[in-house]
Amino acid sequence: EPKKSLDPDEEYKLSGDLRELYDRLLPSKESEDRRTQLCKKLERILDEEWPGNDIQVNMFGSSGNLLSSSDSDVDLCITTDAKALGDMHELAKRLNKHGMEKVVCRAAAKVPIVKCWDPELQLACDVNVNNPLALENTRMIKTYVQLDDRVRPLAKIIKYWTKRRILNDAGPGGTISSYTWICMILNFLQRRDPPILPSLQKMRNAERSTANGQPSDFVDDVDALKGWGKKNNESLAQLLFQFFRHYGYEFEYTKHVVSVREGRLLSRTEKGWETNSIDNKEGRHRLCVEEPFNTYRNLGNSADEYSWSGLHNEIRRAFELLEDGCQIEKVCEQYEFP
Ligand code: CTP
Ligand code: MG
User: How far is CA 215 from CA 113, 136, 147, 212, in A?
Assistant: First the structure.
């Protein structure tokens, strides 16, 4: 039986260690400035290549949701009406012409992207075109992160752990994306008792605010909602421990679906994602995480049975190390391939 909670002295010590780690993980001002510069630079390049069009370059993902580190890749989304920019091969060619290196075009991916490296600003980036969903889900994550002071350190520390243990690559043969982990973290916080986070998409009574003149699909009034979860006084250390306990031992992978949109767990049956469903492929995956906006998408579908089991073992490993009073450094020790 896994230990129920951390003892007070363990909790105190781990809390201190986590604060220290969190401080180290915060991006430097200098690295944030370089990100902004990269955005502006790409806008200049695109304006020069496709003059006379209204073209914006927006940061999303960790560069836009307060969860980046100094070494994170930059996720960029070009928004424009110019049709010519939809041709990813052409975009790749023009970026290369302007000095971008390691330019790779993934035109056939679910979301077509161009990957490149800017040797001047020393930044790697993934560029896509017109993906409003990614901009909105980034803005929602940022809103959640701002609601309670525990969200940012918890998410950053878990992301650091996933990176060190090589658990955040959704590519072929990989595990799941950082974005999927973030949804699992937010939903875990929505389900604490008392909850630390609400469902921003369910708060329909509140006055809907607007972003860029468009109606928002979620409540985004941070000032009004800040401190929403303060009835829960669990510490950062306790939450980290409980996160691993939850996904290591409590969460029933064959029955449950993580739903940030609903702010609770859905059963696979109500979601229509049964393990053996013939007409819906999403349920065949061991991990079910609903994309909050495109709810037919399962963000857990990048992990096959083998990689899910590796992932599950890693969650349990982290829990057991914390249970044994080990240091966070040990939990986040760099994974070495055998
Ligand atoms: N995204 C998405 N659907 C996915 C994966 C990603 O819509 N299946 C979008 C989300 O907007 C997400 C962004 O792509 O915020 C970046 O995803 P990812 O790189 O996984 O997350 P980051 O927060 O950028 O984390 P990291 O620092 O590890 O890059
Ligand atoms: Mg990213």
Answer: 28, 11, 21, 8
CA of 13 to the centre of ligand 1 (A): 32
Atom in ligand 1 nearest the alpha carbon of residue 177: 20
**Host domain of residue 267:** 8-24+134-331
Contact 130, 57 (CB under 8 A): no
Q: Please work out whether the CB of residue 302 comes within 6 Å of at least one atom of ligand 1.
A: no
Ligand 1 touching residue 290 (CB < 6 A): no
Look at residues 105, 131, 157 and tell me which one is the last residue of a structural domain: 131
> How far is it, in rounded angstroms, from Cα 38 to Cα 54?
18
Ligand 1 nearest-atom number relative to CA 134:
11
User: What pLDDT band is residue 211 in, cutting at 50, 70 and 90?
Assistant: low
* Rounded mean pLDDT, 237-257: 98
Q: What is the pTM of this model?
A: 0.96
ipTM of this predicted structure: 0.99
State the CATH number of the domain containing residue 239.
Answer: 1.10.1410.10
Report whether residue 60 contacts ligand 1, using a CB cutoff of 6 Å.
yes
> Are residues 151 and 69 part of one domain?
no
